[in-house]
Amino acid sequence: MRDLQGVIRQRHSARVPFDPERPVSHEALAEILEAASWAPTAHNMQNYEVIVVEDPSILRRLGDLKSGLSLEFIRENYKQLSFSEEELKKKKTGIMASMFPPSWRDPALFSHLEEAAFAEGPSFMSQTLRHSPTVLVVTYDTRKRAPASEGDVLGFISLGCVLQTMWLVSESLGIGFQVMSAFSSPSVEPGVRKILGFPEHEKIAYAVRLGYPQKESEPELQKYLRVRRDISDFVHLNRYGENFPSIQEKS
Ligand SMILES: Cc1cc2nc3c(=O)[nH]c(=O)nc-3n(C[C@H](O)[C@H](O)[C@H](O)COP(=O)(O)O)c2cc1C
Q1: Spatial CB neighbours of 28, under 8 Å, sequence gap ≥ 6
Q2: Ligand 1 lined by 208 (C-beta under 6 Å)
Q3: What is the DSSP letter of 20?
Q4: What mean pLDDT comes out for the span 199-228?
Q5: Which atom of ligand 1 is nearest to the CA of 182?
Q6: How far does CA 242 lie from the centroid of its chain?
Q7: DSSP label of 147
Q8: Residue 141 sits in a domain of what CATH number?
């Protein structure tokens, strides 16, 4: 395994097609899932189930589901977009607009949601899945919540710890990884539930696609600009608003 800081820095969203002929081995999946089981969860409730989907006929049925897209999502997504690398580097948060279809980048189209959402043709989950040979659907039990946790916020944080653990181990194994929030949207989840057969009390937290990026998508991955705030932008020393000196300032 590579050193932890290196793996953390290299971990990224692999928004590219995966090689459909190269599924993730069960040995690698076991390594990823074993690590997930050691993720911290509130009260050690281990509030998750993971459905590993690799059967091509089931993946096809998931891909045939219509993807749900709300006006709320398109509007709020737009606020996070940068239209040039310079803008993104300056903002230090958000995503490049070029990663989304043209109709999501033009507010003039937003008032015509139907046309905006489907300007590039009808939208199906297959466009999100992009030939993934392996998909993990992570669910949580809505009847259980971390003790006295309003809205089960501690339970959701726990699901995030599981996500990050799986992501880092996948990265360390050279396996591409992308979160697909669309699986938990109200218009998609019922179809997924029907296909995968999980009970009503289980809800989808998130789904992830795993695989090995196709050779021809490597340049696309390389040019994908990822930005972060400097620690001095979000760390406060002793009191909110008090500067945390950067290493350079200290030396
Ligand atoms: C809870 C959660 C949901 C996310 N949902 C999606 C998603 O639906 N589609 C996607 O491409 N990326 C999704 N992401 C990935 C983020 O957009 C990504 O981590 C962020 O832009 C930083 O980029 P990086 O992962 O390459 O560092 C999600 C991440 C998290 C933690």
Answers
A1: 173, 175
A2: no
A3: T
A4: 91
A5: 8
A6: 33
A7: T
A8: 3.40.109.10
